[in-house]
Write a structure and sequence with these properties.
about 45% helix, 2 domains, 9 helices, single chain, mainly alpha, two-stranded parallel ribbon, about 210 residues
Length: about 210
Amino acid sequence: MQARKAELSAMEAEIEDLQHSLSTPASQVAATSPEDAPASASVATAPAQPAEREVAPKPVDSETRVSHCPQKLARIRGIGRVYEDKLFQAGIGTFWQVATASNEKLAAIFAIQDFQAVDLDAIKEDARRLAEETGTMGRVWSGQKPDDFESLPGIGKTYEARLYDAGVCTFAKLAAMTEAEIAAIVKAPKWNQPDYAAWIAFAQAQVQKSA
């Protein structure tokens, strides 16, 4: 009988302990440490920055523009006065026209023989350089014959070429210009200014002769 009571007392103690553990508040449960967090937990990431768009280079303006003035093609490396005259006769009068002509066309114009070593690619490359430097990309010659400005007092080939590049290649047009307009084109040094008034007077005289 005593043994039976002891077993009942032990069972009651176990039941009491179990009830006590079940009644423990949730706030007393230890918080899970960050190290115990599962590896699969989502981590916020900054959105990827979009790659910078490459800006394509602006194409060089090569819109076709017709000019009544040819350019001094002898300034192109590899082009002398003989080849220049042949180009003029073929209707090619600008750096741009030379730069964009085919090798076959240039070879036919120059009448190049098999034994002649003429680098047409180099000629075209230098013609393009001059077209870019003079701002005459896309310029083509109308075929109109210009006046010879070399008879103007003190002009020289350089100043004549600058006038031609600016579209001034006839005595009629030169005669209608002011000294300031001519000076802006020629860009002569201050210590060696040409007599622009004499140029205008000479051009006006030539216009009157041809009238």
